[in-house]
Amino acid sequence: MNFSLVSFLSAFVMAMISSGPLLAQDDPRAASLLSKVSEKMEQYSSFHAEYASLMVDLQSDLEMSQDGEVWIEGDRYHLELGNYVIVCDGQTVWTYEPEMGECYVDDAEVIAEDGVDPAQMFTIWEDGFKQVWKGEVTEAGRSLSRVDLHPDGAEERSFHTIQCFIDSEQLQVVRLVVKGREGTDVVYTITSFEGNGLVPDGAFKFDQAKYPGTTMIDNRL
Length: 221
Fold this sequence. Notes:
The protein is mostly beta strands. It has helices spanning 3-14, 28-41, 108-113, and strands at residues 47-57, 62-73, 76-81, 84-88, 92-97, 102-107, 129-139, 142-151, 159-167, 172-180, 184-195, 215-218.
């Protein structure tokens, strides 16, 4: 995996951080809106979303775009980013890297301890962030509310801010902008979202038969 793609994937998974109840926040308006979004998300047993992602490396003047798709059900997820595939059954995480023809196997608990949890991508603010209301913007006739999320222990994170754009009427996240600490920003734009949609059979297990010749690399102890 080349450096730019490592940065891209790292920024993605670092944006998927969440677990637990809302913390006390400095900005009541931001907390109120995000609480309503969380309540709506709790009504769904599963999610399916398609998204477009754009990495911008300001230091090297590099841009990289990819389309992605994710299915989420509880603590299980199936995420596709270009040809890359990340699958979790709640206990094990499989990360398939097509360029190397390799699939890395890790304990989900260990991955979660590193702050990697795509299962929480639509409620990333629920733990470990200060929430700041930044106002409203209009895009293509659509009114969006912007809330900036600043992580606790920011000096130890690879990013310093997540700009969260929310459709206040639909109570749905439509865009996340991850502001990297070293000059790499990643933008995720949700192009479609479906709650309680059908999840493909076997979505939360890595099927090695679909990727012939793949080398399995087990990082579990």
